[in-house]
Amino acid sequence: MTSRHFKDHIREHRIFINRALIAFAFVLFLSGCLVARFYYLQVIQHDTYATLSDRNRVQLLSLPPPRGLIFDRNGELLADNRPSFSLTLVRERVPDMAATLEQLQGILDLTDEEVDRFYKRLQQRRRPYQPVALKLRLSEEEIARFSINRHRFPGVEVEAEAIRFYPMANTMAHVLGYVGRINEAELKVLDPVNYSGTNYTGKLGIEKVYEEVLHGKVGYQKVETNARGRVLRVLERIPPEAGRNISLHIDSRLQKVTERVLEGYRAAVVAIDVKTGGILAMVSTPSYDPNLFVTGIDQASYEALRDSPDIPLYNRAIRGRYPPASTIKPFVALAGLNADKTSWQHKVWDPGYYQIGGQGRRYRDWKRWGHGWVDLHHSIVQSCDVYFYDLAYRMGPDPMAEMLDKFGFGKVVAHDALGARVGILPSREWKQGALRQPWYPGDSLNTSIGQGYMLSTPLQLATATAVLANRGKWVTPRFIKEIEGQELPPIETPPDIVLENPQDWDRMFMAMRDVMHSSQGTGRASGRGASYEIAGKTGTAQVIGIAQNEEWDASQVEERHQDHALFIGFAPMEDPQIALAVVVENGIGGSTTAAPIARKIFDAHLLEQYEEPAEEPDPKQAVTRVN
Fold first, then answer.
1. What amino acid positions are annotated as catalytic residues?
2. Which of 476, 512, 504 is nearest to 595 (CA)?
3. Domain spanning 60-248 has what CATH number?
4. 8 A C-beta contact, residue 511 and residue 374
5. pTM as predicted
6. What are phi and psi of 473, to 5 degrees?
7. Quick one: which H or E segment has residue 233?
8. Which of 103, 275, 521, 539 supports an S-S bond with 515, CB 3.0-4.6 Å?
């Protein structure tokens, strides 16, 4: 008998019901989890995610402050802000950077150098959603070409910004310096909040010294954007605070005259207002156009400036160190008088050379056959080296170094001349510390005529001359004259110079006057015909050494090995208004090159002769021009 199996419908129904209940419970559990998650996100975390959502829709943008303007003493604009349009990209909103750049190159004239610079800027530390410039100074045609294709480039915009512009370009380059794009090193030291919307900072000169004043304070605006990052409306705005305008003591008219008379020379001039210490003119030639550096100079132009043998980027006025030559003699003379090592009546026999103890090396005078018997007055008028050799030997280095230090040699005393060098004021201590050598009498002789180890900058020479013109009263040289809406902080001033015999100031003035106006003065050609009296001193500094018995033949010496020409002076003598120093590299002679330049600058300032006179050049005047 075969067994048969019958279905148990009741049991199967029970199994189905149990499974359905388990499935329903599982679905109910999942639904509960989903509802709970919705509740957590929509209710408990509502504020958090609403804020995150707003960040995608609402952006806080920094507003760069307008940079303060720079004016000269007469209100002439020296540094301006001009509108410029740039193409910028926001990395967070550009889906494919490489593809975007490739497409943009087909629309705009992008160079490989511009693309490389963009990638460098992109790698710099910056805030999220901060635009990075790709191409600067867009033309109207370039703006139009991009605008037609704008819909194709999310995260790419044309932005307007104020770009620094220097109307006088080369004329003011070494005074003002320039602003440039902030680099990686500067990002680490600049205030990240105040510079959050700023792309530029001062790099050199006045722009860097007064960066904090000129920059201003950043502003903000809260804007609503669409999904492509473009601004729909401004929700809130806190305007930036513009930088303060500043005025300088610089007289742009005198600056232009000085640049004109130095044209073709490698030279520097510093002119100082004797009464205030304000720097009226500071010119170093050749110069350069600072506008090239504002948005980034191209490689070819920079290499041309960097590799030029005339080094136009070098500020000779504050960084060039030169032997002061005979321009140092008035200060050495005052040291000798104050130390009671000479007098105005003391005379020395000059046969054309000086020997210590009547034997050994001969220290030559510039005048081969000598000046004969000379006193202190005539030794300055005729620039007699032998008189100062004898004075230095008898006086020694200490009184000389002490007096020169009081006049500001060997240190930086200017208030805001960024990068000024200290020069070298030789002394026993300096030589022992720098060279590990003792001081020899010959060192004193060389220092007394501004040669040997002695080096000074044109700024130091002009400063010492201003103190001399003030009869020892110090006024610290400075560029700044006024800061808009702010009082100038007190400026530290060295102690005044007090002589044992105050009449020595007047006697020195007369000696320097005769340098320019007497028949025997070395600067008489430049003083001739002046309607005011000039007190000055010429100088000629050797660039290369000459052997003891070697004869000097300037015609056989390479141009860049020719002597430097120097001049210091102030005018008018009875009530000095302006003091200046002139240094002409390889200018051969202070009387033939530097003094005539000084006369033109004096005339411009005192007689307001700012326009170039229509006159033929003197073919007899010996000058050396830059090759």
1. 326
2. 512
3. 3.90.1310.10
4. no
5. 0.83
6. -80, 125
7. strand 231-238
8. 521
